[in-house]
Design goal:
alpha/beta; six-stranded mixed sheet; four-stranded antiparallel sheet; 3 helices; globular; binds inosinic acid; binds magnesium ion; cytoplasm; PRTase_dom; transferase; HGPRT; EC 2.4.2.8
């Protein structure tokens, strides 16, 4: 029988088992290895919290010298009248002149990644490319290219392997989809 798990008020069933995720992670790592082998010490910047598991598995498959760092996009209520303000925290490396690869868990509408790229560009890196475990092309509304999507999915809501439903589910090794 199909395994169903409950997180808060919703039920989820397995959509992508761990072995399939591993194949996709290896394939995207191969592409990055081929493109960056000649570059000087690129920096991978993982976006917390969602990217922690992907970052770990991806970087074990990267075969060139590189640096690893993490940032967080923190949302807070600015004046509480003008809505939410998003801030990039934790960028503690000088990235000027460096080749940067952002590592995300999922790109949905693209609002977060667009903000992230704009923030990083202010520090004059040599290049910025985006690697994401999941990409929802039908939901994507921005124009910046998503260079290295490991897997493309529809507009369904998923959890596991770093992704959460209201902070639960990040520790699951398979990816689950919400079910009725
Ligand atoms: P975007 O700014 O619309 O691209 O959304 C990005 C953020 O929304 C991601 O970093 C996730 O935190 C969250 N998100 C979008 N889709 C999902 C999903 O299917 N499961 C879990 N989180 C998601
Ligand atoms: Mg995220």
């Amino acid at each position: 029988m199909e395994k169903v798990i409950k997180l808060h008020d919703r039920n989820f069933k397995v959509m992508i088992p761990a072995d399939k995720i591993e194949v996709a992670v290896s394939a995207v790592a191969d592409k990055i290895n081929a493109d960056y082998r000649e570059k000087k010490n690129p920096i991978f910047i993982g976006v917390l919290n969602g990217s922690f598991m992907f970052m770990s598995d991806l970087l074990k498959k990267i075969d060139f010298c590189c640096e690893i760092s993490f940032v967080k996009l923190a949302s807070y209520c600015g004046t509480c009248s003008s809505g939410e303000v998003t801030n990039l925290i934790g960028l503690n490396r000088d990235i000027e002149g460096r080749d940067v690869i952002i590592v995300e868990d999922i790109v949905d509408t693209g609002a977060s990644i667009e903000h992230m790229v704009a923030e990083l560009q202010r520090h004059n890196p040599a290049s910025v490319r985006i690697c994401t475990l999941f990409f929802k092309p039908n939901a994507y509304k921005r124009s910046i290219p998503i260079d290295y999507p490991a897997m493309e999915i529809g507009n369904e809501f998923i959890v596991g392997y770093g992704l959460d439903y209201d902070q639960l589910g990040r520790n699951l090794k398979d990816v689950y989809v919400v079910t009725e």
